[in-house]
Amino acid sequence: MCLAAPVFLRRIGELTPTTLVISLVSAVALLAAIVAFAVVDLAGGSPAMWVVAGIAALCAVAIAWRLRRPLGQLGSYDVPVADAVLGGVAPGDAGA
What we know:
This protein is mainly alpha-helical. Helix content is 57%, strand content 0%. The longest helix is centred in the first third of the chain and has 28 residues, at 17-44. The chain contains three helices and no strands. The chain is extended and about 65 Å long. The protein has helices at residues 4-11, 17-44, 48-66. The protein has a domain at 4-69.
């Protein structure tokens, strides 16, 4: 998510330097935490990292299998409409 946010914000023209820096720092911090956990866990002999690696491998296979057939135009018309907004149209804005 930390790396996807700047890509999305750039696509819609709302990326700022502050957002980019916060996203990159967050991604590096999360990666460091994951690596530290993995090192400590593997040194302790716990099978947790092997379970996580197995689940990651299954997810990679599932993603590769799904990418054989692209989704097509999913999300091409991602334009908000009044009915899609939480709460719908405000009573005073029905004619606007």
